Amino acid sequence: MTELPSRRLLLVHAHPDDESINNGATMARYAAEGAHITLVTCTLGERGEVIPPELAHLTGAALGQHRRSELSAAMAGLGVQDFRLLGGAGRYSDSGMMGLPDNDDPACFWQADVDEAAAHLVEVILEVRPQVLVTYDDNGGYGHPDHIQAHRVAMRAAELAAESGWTIPKVYWNRVPRPVVEDAFARLRDDLPGTPFTKAASVDDVPGVVAGERITAAIDGTAHAAAKAAAMRAHATQITVAEPYFVLSNELAQPILTTEYYELVRGERGPGERETDLFAGVEEAS
Ligand SMILES: [Zn+2]
After folding, report:
1. Cα 27 to middle of ligand 1, angstroms
2. Residue stretches of the annotated binding site
3. Are 176 and 206 contacting, i.e. CB atoms less than 8 angstroms apart?
4. Which of 5, 103, 204, 209 is geometrically suited to a Cys-Cys bond with 36, CB 3.0 to 4.6 A?
């Protein structure tokens, strides 16, 4: 087996673009520091809404293929070489928004058997032996079926991998502290007339918002803000960026957060009020 760097981070996401929005600065920082970063994306986001009119013809498998190339471009910008699709490309398809008939498609991720899907991830965990796993909370951050399922599969895979010889020392959920995002939206309301966007989203549109006390780690990605914005821009079917803001297909402006926040849910918390390094306290051994 080839030698892996001593610090290894695994991120599990539902669709191409989620990684850049949630963790783009974190990924850029650790890539720059020489850590091994593995991204596992569970679906190709074939049911995403396409923003640019010139790409609006892309649907289903064609959209999935296009989003795969967007993901490659985003990862090139962040310096991440190891990115994979859960079970291989096309194994699980996008489940669409909660409550739609799409959720019943037997090929969709929401219909996947959790243990079977987790088995694909266990293979990755046993190969890479990450010290840190990042995924969503049990509501998937905002209730999208693929995000909820990504959470279930990631947490189950961590359990199964532990039974097979690799216990991931630290598991984090993506979070956003309410006071931080409230301040960011206050600035956005002032700045909005100077942006290409016409309407602001609200705090409730942001996934994973919790009280500040719940946050155990804050990763300052200021130095990697440009890389994060570029990675988000690479997902052009899904995101329009005008730094420091962006919109999704609903056209509601949101702030790009360059400090990214986490809640430690498994493992030993490092020193300080909030960790500033996801690897704090982990044994850097293979
Ligand atoms: Zn998503």
Report:
1. 17
2. 15, 18, 147
3. yes
4. 5
Distance 50 CA to ligand 1 centre (A): 13
249 CA from centroid of ligand 1 (Å): 12
DSSP structure class, residue 228: H
Cα(243) to centroid of ligand 1, in Å? 21
CB-proximal residues (5 Å) to ion ligand 1: 14-15, 18
Contact between 177 and 215 under an 8 Å Cβ cutoff? The reply is yes
Mean pLDDT computed over every residue of the chain: 96
Q: What Å distances lie between residue 32 and 11, 126, 133, 221, 270, CA to CA?
A: 16, 24, 18, 11, 22
Residue 285 has pLDDT above 90, yes or no: no
- Of the pLDDT bands very low, low, confident and very high (cuts 50, 70, 90), residue 2 is low
Task: For 114-169, write each residue's pLDDT tens digit.
Answer: 999 999 999 999 999 999 999 999 999 999 999 999 999 999 999 999 999 999 99
> How much is the pLDDT for 1?
53
Question: Is the confidence at residue 257, as pLDDT, over 90?
Answer: yes
Residues making up the annotated binding site for Zn(2+) are: 15, 18, 147
